[in-house]
Amino acid sequence: MNTSHAAAARFESVTQTFGDFAAVDGIDLSIAEGKLTTLLGPSGCGKTTSLRMLAGYARPTSGKIYIQGKDATTAPPEKRGLGMVFQSYALFPHMTVGDNVGYGLKLRKTSRAELQTRVQESLEMVGLSHLAGQKPRKLSGGQQQRVALARAIAIRPRLLLLDEPLSNLDARLRVQMRAEIRRIQNETGLTVVLVTHDQDEALEMSDDMVLMRQGKIMQQGSPEAVFGAPASRFVANFLGYENFLALDSTRQITVRPEHLITTPTSPQDPAAVNPDAAAGPGLHLRGTVVDVAYRGVDVIVTSRALDPTGQQVQLLSNMRADALSHLTPGDEVLLSAPGDRLVALAAEPEAASSAAGAAR
């Protein structure tokens, strides 16, 4: 097979099975050189299994994995030239920060002078050169995460693999480390593959997002492309689209809460009887408010309405508090969205085995 060198890594029809269960089910995946790619999805979707196969800690049941154009399907982890940061960081508690960062270099029999230079450079990159002599137990969670990152970078890997590295940090540190990882990736030009279940993390950090479900790839593309045009209800729902309406027996649309406009009206208003008279192309429905949640700068309004097929649906509208008159449950409203804010959804693919919930 002639594999493009534009891809840092490539999966070709890769499957990983455990008995009758397919944790990863025949995926084709290309990971672009010098970009940050996220494998995103809920627990059980196959993202961690895919990362472990790329790292060499698990072998595909079938299919091929190429790294920089070379078949690496059966190569052991130490022969792949990859750096990996685990969820637990896996630092050696009896070693100093500097020794932890230099551990992979020592295994590669790097000269003492080169080892010291790379350790210093890597620690400077993550802002921890002043802690080289400390033991990991004296560091905060965020600092330990940076040490693990520096250790992975120090060996100058072909690819840097990150397995939910931020999940053990508090919310503030997670946001800081997202920016830190992205900065390092931009400065070094490293190819990074990040596993996460957090859609905000993926949207903020990715050059390329790979959204998985039950061992299959549901959609791949830039954050803007995937978020702006989700391919299916699963993708839309996972990315925070909450309003789904059927147009007929085969067609479905979705609209995000911030794009659904809620306008107070009354039964005497002609538009309340004939919503299409409200204005131009797009979505126009008559609804009834069932809940109003004030959140300071914005308000979440939940309304019930009938979709174009006559089925009752519950719709959420997220609007600025200063742009909305006072509403209470029971009020009649018009629910509208311009046509360019409506996203047409493809039919859902056949569901995989319910056993998929057991895999990661």
- What proportion strand? 25-35%
Q: Report Rg.
A: 25 Å
The number of helical elements comes to 9
SSE ordering? EEEHEEEHHHEHEHEEHHEEEHEEEEE
Largest sheet: 6 strands, mixed
**What is the general shape?**
elongated
What class would the helix/strand composition place it in? alpha+beta
Distance between the termini: 30 Å
Q: Which residues form runs of ≥5 with pLDDT under 50?
A: 1-5, 350-360
Helix content: 10-25%
Mean pLDDT: 88
- Number of DSSP strands? 18
Adjacency order of strands in the biggest sheet:
6-7-8-3-9-10
EC number: 7.6.2.9
Pfam families: ABC_tran, TOBE_2
Keywords: ATP-binding, Nucleotide-binding, Transport
Protein name: ABC-type quaternary amine transporter
What would the keywords be for this entry?
single chain, 360 residues, alpha+beta, six-stranded mixed beta sheet, 9 helices, elongated, disordered N terminus, ABC_transporter-like_ATP-bd, nucleotide-binding, ABC-type quaternary ammonium compound transporting activity, ABC-type quaternary amine transporter
How would you summarize what this structure contains?
With 360 residues, the chain is α+β, with helices and mostly antiparallel strands. Helices cover 25% and strands 32% of the residues.
Task: Describe the protein in words.
25% of the residues lie in helices and 32% in strands. By secondary structure, the protein is of the alpha+beta class. Strands 6-7-8-3-9-10 form a 6-stranded mixed β-sheet, with helices on both faces. A 5-stranded antiparallel β-sheet has the order 13-17-14-15-16. The protein has a 4-stranded antiparallel β-sheet with strand order 2-1-4-5, with helices on one face. A hairpin with a 2-residue loop joins strand 9 (208-213) and strand 10. Helix 2 (97-107) crosses helix 3 (112-125), helix 2 packs parallel to helix 4 (141-154) and helix 3 packs across helix 4 (141-154). It is elongated. The relative contact order is 0.14. Residues 1-5 and 350-360 have low confidence and may be disordered.
